[in-house]
From TrEMBL:
Main subcellular location: other
Transport is among the record's keywords: no
Domain of life: Bacteria
PANTHER family recorded: D-ALLOSE-BINDING PERIPLASMIC PROTEIN-RELATED, GALACTOFURANOSE-BINDING PROTEIN YTFQ
InterPro entries, alphabetized: Peripla_BP_I, SBP_2_dom
Similarity comment: family membership: Belongs to the bacterial solute-binding protein 2 family.
Organism field: Paenibacillus auburnensis
The Periplasmic binding protein domain, residue ranges: 22-281
Cell location: Cell envelope
Keywords in alphabetical order: Signal
Protein name: ABC transporter periplasmic-binding protein YtfQ
SUPFAM superfamilies cross-referenced by the UniProt entry: Periplasmic binding protein-like I
C-alpha cells in the first residue's frame, strides 16, 4: 500500500545515499543534546546523509530550514516541532514538493494528518499521569491541602501542554492537591533556578510541599534555588521531574530529586528505520510511541551507571 499524496520512491538505489533533512528545534536541555547525538550517530550508522539545522526555539527558523531542504531536494524531512500549532502551510509546501515528512519527538496540531507520514515520540500526557500518581502515593499519609509548584516547559510545546494536562486530570478528583504556583521556565536549568527562586520569595505559607518539573534540567535548577533558600530538596519539598537523564539520576542518588518519569531521547535508530521503510514504499503506523518507565531514588542507585544519556 502506498502512502497518500506521495509517489512511491521505488527500489532504493544503494549507490545513491538517502538524504534526510532534519529540523531540530534547539539545544535547550540535556535531553535535547542526547536526542541530537542519537540522530547523528544513527544516520552515520545507517549510511543516511543527514542535513541537520538548529532552530534555537524559533518556529520561523524551522520554516526556513524546511524550505532550504526543499530547495536541496532532499529525499525526506524530519521535524522536531518547537510548538504544536502553525504547521499547516509549511507542510503543504513539503507535500507540493513531494517530500515525505516525519514528525519527531513533539506533535503538530494539524487537521489533515496526511500532511505527515508518521509521528515518532513519547506519550507526554501519560508522563504527566505517571508523575501525579507517584506524587499521590508518596503524599498519601499527608493530611490537609498539599500545595504544588509546577515548572512548565516551553509555552505552546506538546510536552509542556500534555504533561500539564495529564498531571491535572489525575489530581482533579482529589481536592487536597492544589497547583498553587505555576510558570514556564523554558526547559532550561537557568530558568528553572530563577523561577523556583521567585516561588520561594513568596511568603512562607505559600511555599509548596511538592514540585512538579516538566523536565530534569529545570528540576536541577530548582534544587539549587531550594538549597539557597535554606531548605532541603527531596524532603522539605518533594521533587518529581521528567526525562531520566544521568544528571537527574545522580540527584536522586543524593536525595535531592524523589522520582523521575522517563522520556526517551534516543530516537535516532527508530527515525532511520522509518526513513528506510518509507523509501522502500512501506506503510508505517501513524503513531509510534516509545516505551518508558518511572524511576525512584531506590532504583536510581542501581541504574545510574547504566544511564545512556
Ligand atoms: O520534547 C521533549 C522535551 O524537550 C524534554 O522533556 C525536554 O527536556 C526537552 O527540552
Amino acid at each position: 500500500p502506498l502512502i497518500t499524496g506521495y509517489e512511491p520512491p521505488g527500489e532504493p538505489n544503494p549507490m545513491k545515499p538517502i538524504i534526510l533533512g532534519f529540523s531540530q528545534l534547539g539545544s535547550e536541555s540535556t535531553w535535547r543534546e542526547a536526542n541530537t547525538a542519537s540522530i547523528k550517530e544513527a544516520a552515520a550508522e545507517a549510511g543516511i546523509t543527514l542535513l541537520m539545522t538548529n532552530a534555537e526555539q524559533d518556529q520561523n527558523k524551522q520554516f526556513e530550514a524546511i524550505r532550504s531542504f526543499i530547495r536541496r531536494d532532499v529525499d525526506m524531512i524530519a521535524i522536531a516541532p518547537v510548538v504544536q500549532t502553525g504547521w499547516e502551510a509549511i507542510l503543504e509546501e513539503t507535500r507540493e514538493a513531494g517530500i515525505p515528512v516525519i514528525i519527531l519527538d513533539r506533535s503538530v496540531n494539524v487537521e489533515d494528518s496526511s500532511l505527515y507520514i508518521t509521528f515518532i515520540g513519547s506519550d507526554f500526557y501519560e508522563e504527566g499521569v505517571k508523575a501525579a500518581k507517584y506524587m499521590m502515593d508518596r503524599m498519601r499519609h499527608h493530611s490537609g491541602i498539599i500545595q504544588i509548584a509546577e515548572l512548565q516547559g516551553t509555552v505552546g510545546s506538546t510536552p509542556s501542554i500534555d504533561r500539564g494536562l495529564g498531571f491535572r486530570k489525575t489530581i482533579e478528583a482529589n481536592g487536597n492537591y492544589q497547583i498553587t504556583q505555576t510558570k514556564p521556565a523554558d526547559f532550561t536549568q537557568k530558568r528553572g533556578r530563577e523561577v523556583m527562586r521567585e516561588f520561594l520569595q513568596q511568603p512562607k505559607e505559600k511555599w509548596p510541599q511538592v514540585l512538579f518539573s516538566h523536565n530534569d534540567d529545570m528540576a536541577i535548577g530548582a534544587v539549587e534555588a531550594i538549597k539557597e533558600a535554606g531548605l532541603k530538596p527531596g524532603s522539605d519539598i518533594i521533587i518529581i521531574s521528567v526525562d531520566g537523564t544521568r544528571r537527574a539520576f545522580e540527584q536522586m542518588v543524593d536525595g535531592n530529586i524523589n522520582a523521575v518519569v522517563e522520556c526517551n531521547p534516543l530516537l535516532g535508530p527508530l527515525l532511520m528505520q522509518a526513513v528506510k521503510e518509507i523509501m522502500a514504499g512501506r506503510t508505517l503506523p501513524k503513531r509510534m510511541v516509545t516505551p518508558e518507565d518511572i524511576f525512584t531514588q531506590e532504583l536510581a542507585a542501581k541504574e545510574v551507571e547504566y544511564r545512556k544519556y
